[in-house]
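Objective 1b: paired records.
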Amino acid sequence: MMAAAQHSWAEQLAKLGQLLRDEPMSRHTTLAVGGPADWYFRPADKQALMQAMTWIPADMPRLPLGRGSNLLVADAGIRGMVIDLGALNAIRLDGCSLYAEAGVRMSRTARLCAEQGLTGLEFLATVPGDMGGGIAMNAGAFGQEIADCLQRIEVVHSDGRSEVIEKEALAMGYRQTCLPSGAVVVSGCFELATDSPDAVRQRIRNFRERRGLTQPLSQPNCGSVFKNPSSRHAARLIEEAGLKGLRIGGARISDVHANFIVNEGEATAADVLALIAKARQEVLDRFDIRLETEVRMVGVMP
């Protein structure tokens, strides 16, 4: 905070939430990997975020952050401002309509829906992230995805303006949502269907059981590393290439699920990148299929 006091804009941000300098991103990602962010800001609420966006220097890169899943941060860290949306955690129901802010855990959303007998978002119980990130990447699992129920979102632009955008304008596809440049998702509205609470809970239990049997949930990971090609599952391709269990440094292609890379304790981003490159090349050489990463890579990669 003392370094922050040297900047007038940083003094203003510090009044609007928590501001840290050179914050290690390994503390804020589910893979537990990543160097320091120049600046790390956690606004107190949506209004604080809107004000803060007007104070952050226009030429400073900004990275919205939820739980840090689906994210690989370079060992050299992140130049610019990481904006932690964890304090934006309001959630409410009005009949079959659900409103959730960006910092609400997806698992919490699924739990609330089950309690109220609402169906459509059961898969969220198995996704380790927050609603803002889920919306931004159109998260999905078990044949469901965010786009199935989403009606509209609210974003805050880099100049602090708030805007409501209908789903039809977001061109949502497989693991992608087309957001305005520089915009930060702050909330989403969903329309759900009714079902018995017991039926919704049972589907959630089934999803969790399947995920527990097929994914390395006990080790730090970033979720699925590659998108599934149209013809094959990425995990099957990597396994058939003989790479399941391959270790480089402190990172390993999971023995449980080959589309997961786990941190075995001392992994670096460089270790993970080496495994990603190896898997891509082997799958390309053997099957003539080019894997596309699902994990988002930020910072200056070697």
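Objective 1b, second protein:
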Amino acid sequence: MTASRQVLCVLLGAMGVAPSGCALHFNMTDPVPDPGDGIRVPKESKFASLVKDPGETVSLAGPMPTLVVATNPAPPPPGTILPPTNEMMSTSPPAVPTEGGGSAGDGIWPKPRPVQANEPFLVAARAAWDGRPDRVADALRPLDKPTQDALRPLLLAGAALAMGQSASTPQDFSFSAAQLHAALAVVERRAELRIENARFVAEVRGFRRFDPLPDGFVFQPGQSLRIYAEITPLVADRLHGGGTGISLSYVMRVKDERGKAFMLIDKKGQETPVLVVTEETDASRGPMAEKHFVWEFTGPRVPGLYSAEIEIRDLHTGRVAKKRLVFRVGGT
């Protein structure tokens, strides 16, 4: 087909009046005539071919762009060091908690709030820095009494240490230490009472001086048992008989594995399911932030699994600490 006939067919086709038998062909040669046997043999298509191997490219027929088939790269051989990713190259600083001085939910630091110039703590801290202990007490007066008693010696000792007024002689340091101990004692009055280092022992010679029995030790029926434990923190207060010191109440129960109470023998030689002992220690024996106690009793005669339940109460503050020790009594 000549060029003029091609242009004519295009115009007629656009007008919708192309003559019958007129086919439009672009960038193609004239079709191969029918062989005349009534059977049309299709030409081999070169439009596209299947990909045989990963990364192979295929070409479309004509002036079409090259089609690239993307495949996952093969894993690198062992020992290959890969280049850093975008996440590894990031230099952004880690997130910082926006509330409180510690991590969220740690329960240690309070949430920040607007600071007022007349905050009792700030006014008292300034008065301590100026060396005016009388103004420290006045500034703290809006706070509750235990908080006043804790902050007053703490601020005075801190200001003196910061200004170097308590750093000249050991005696000066002793005075600051006494102030810090006074502040700590007020805080410990409201701290949790704890039973520590509780265990069965063979002998006790004093505070943290004992011979422990091995774990899983099996007692003989009717054998004498000793329990050693320590209680802390303790604070001194006024005693009923005068003076100051600590006042504690000790309670112990022993039960079998079914929860039935084992009868203990009190100091009067009478059977009781609960042993109760009270103790007062005068502060004249020295400062006492912690102390030990020893329970000694005759164990069960029936083999089996038992538990000793200990309860200690600070009679000054009402704080209570509890501990449970499991032990076994074997056969004869």
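The chain is about 20% helix and 25% strand. The mean pLDDT is 76.
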